[in-house]
Amino acid sequence: MYKILLVSSALALSSLATNALADGAVTGAAGGAITGAIVGGPVGAAVGGIAGGVAGAVVDPPPREVVTYVQQQPAPTSRVVVEQPIVVGKPLPADVVVTPVPDNPKYAYTVVNDRRVIVEPRTHRVVQVIE
Asked: Which range marks the domain in which residue 112 is found?
């Protein structure tokens, strides 16, 4: 009975997370549900799935190849200055021009306030700031 409830809870959470959250949140919800089930049974699965979904929604770091590519690109000739803080998980202003990463269209980059920034091209959400 507990196994059926556990599987049902995990599937329900994964389905809900898939519709409502980004890829990182789905991974976090599934991982949290499994860990919660091991520690606390069906109730632990539900709580772990929710906590994992919230943690996974933060931002998954880009692959090392993307970071290396961005680091190796020449600096632009014109400076882009943004008054707001550049924070992982928050979008850059829509007027900031980003350049796609050729081998990984999930990422783009720009240089803002003299710092290289990797973003999601569709949303301009900051994925990583390279110091």
From this structure: 86-130
In the block, residue with structure tokens 């290289």: 116
Is residue 112 situated within a structural domain?
A: yes
Q: Both tokens of residue 121?
A: 């091209």
- What Å distances lie between residue 25 and 16, 17, 30, 71, 89, CA to CA? 11, 7, 8, 27, 13
Nearest partner of 81 among 72, 93, 69, judged by Cα: 93
pTM (two decimals): 0.57
User: Domain count of the chain?
Assistant: 1
118, β-bridge pairs: 109, 128
| Torsional sign, CA 29, 31, 33, 36 | negative
Distance CA 122, CA 2 (A): 42
Name the CA dihedral angle for 7, 50, 25, 37, rounded to a multiple of 10 degrees: -40
Task: Tell me the residue length of the chain.
Answer: 131
pLDDT tens-digit series, residues 37-67: 565 666 655 555 565 555 445 678 999 999 9
Assign residue 99 the CATH number of its domain. Answer: 3.10.450.160
